[in-house]
Amino acid sequence: MKSEKAKILVCEDNTALSGVVCFNLVRAGFEVTSVSNGRLALDALEKDTFDLVLSDQQMPMMTGIQLCENLRQLPAHRRTPFILLTAKCMEIDFVKLQQKLGISAALPKPFSPNELVNCIEETLAAHCPS
């Protein structure tokens, strides 16, 4: 991976979970921007580039899948790795989402901080091999 910190956008409406996720990502050496819904995530994505987007699936105003659909419309983010966090992993068709939207991974809730960091590191390594 690059010597500079990878920039991650975290989109999670649960304040407590967002705090835990951001704390662990910063501790793992990532630069983190956090927003509480998909609309704010799109605003952030229009203003800046990110190495990876990590989004909850179930949020008010816009789901994680809808966020990814919108993200893929932004030229700078057509290929940005996207990890979906969901408590309903059994209800989504991950293979279809991979094919249609290029979603990199779906991480079932609850997850451990180590599992999250490993998933992000593997996704970034696969997207930008050294």
Care to describe what's here?
- With 130 residues, this protein is α/β, with parallel strands linked by helices.
- The mean pLDDT is 91.
- The protein is globular.
- Strand 1, helix 1 (15-27) and strand 2 (31-35) form a beta-alpha-beta unit.
- The protein has one domain (7-127): Rossmann fold (3-Layer(aba) Sandwich).
- The protein has a five-stranded parallel sheet with strand order 2-1-3-4-5, with helices on both faces.
- 42% of the residues lie in helices and 18% in strands.
- Helix 1 (15-27) packs across helix 5 (113-127).
- The protein contains five helices and five strands; from the N terminus they run E-H-E-H-E-H-E-H-E-H.
- The termini are close together.
Describe what is shown at a glance.
The protein has 130 residues and is α/β, with parallel strands linked by helices. Helix content is 42%, strand content 18%.
Layout of SSEs?
Layout: E1 7-11, H1 15-27, E2 31-35, H2 38-47, E3 52-56, H3 64-71, E4 82-86, H4 94-101, E5 105-108, H5 113-127
Parallel strand pairs: 1-2, 1-3, 3-4, 4-5
> What's the architecture in CATH terms?
3-Layer(aba) Sandwich
Main structural class: alpha/beta
Question: Can you write the helix and strand succession as a string?
Answer: EHEHEHEHEH
- Number of separate strands: 5
Question: What is the C-level CATH assignment?
Answer: Alpha Beta
Alpha-carbon distance between the two ends: 6 Å
Low-confidence stretches: none
Q: CATH superfamily, please?
A: Response regulator
